[in-house]
Prior knowledge:
Elements lengths: L4 H16 L5 H13 L3 H8 L27 H4 L6 E7 L2 E4 L4 E11 L2 E5 L4 E2 L3 E9 L2 E6 L4 E4 L2 E3 L2 E2 L15 E9 L2 E6 L3 H24 L18
Parallel strand pairs: 1-3, 2-4, 3-5, 3-6, 4-7, 6-11, 7-12, 8-11, 9-11, 10-12
Helix pairs in contact: 1-2, 1-5, 2-5
Amino acid sequence: MRASDAERERVAELLREAVAEGRLDMDEFDQRLETAYKARTHGELEPLVQDLPAPGTTVAPVGPSAPAPLRGSAANWPARIGGTATSKGAFALWGGFERKGRWTVGRLFTAFAMWGGGDIDLREANFEDREIVIRCFAIMGGIRVVAPPELNVEVKGIGIMGGFGEGANEGGEISPDSPRVQITGFALMGGVGVDRKRTKAERRRLKEAQEAELEARRRRGLEGPDDGGFGEGFGGGRKQL
């Protein structure tokens, strides 16, 4: 069965997500992407994504009914929910605390900072439950929460002569499969900030993937479109990728 432009793009998107998550290295990504753009049939496309996960399947489909791939860290949500909490709270007085990297957030996590500060990084974290409550109390201090764009975050805190989570819902690409994280509490003459951003490693992989894709498109353009032997006289020719 002949592949469409939309199916080639769907495979390219799955490959981009795979390299962003570290499932493919750049050499593999470059080779598969070039093959995807040259593919004329489903039989040529399917092996390129057969070993990559897609939501709810073990083989990534390429047909018209294939679901849109989840972006970035969102593809890992099912595996990141559940397990025993490694931390249920943090405290800083004239000092600081940090929770980052691979850790498991308790279903109720309480953070307190007075004349000090703390960082709560959720970008690579696991979650004890699908419903998580993070209580933040900052008195003449500050607490910063960093979340990936796909995480469902709801902020309900209060700022008194300070700020609490302004702009927390800007720039999000919420995944329906992500846990729901509610951030509550108050800031008195201090602040609780909530930022959405990807990790440096993920941003670097995405940038490298974009550069490799541009190079593959450039090479494809120099080679010229493959019309499958029909020529431009049949249906106006094929669109060049």
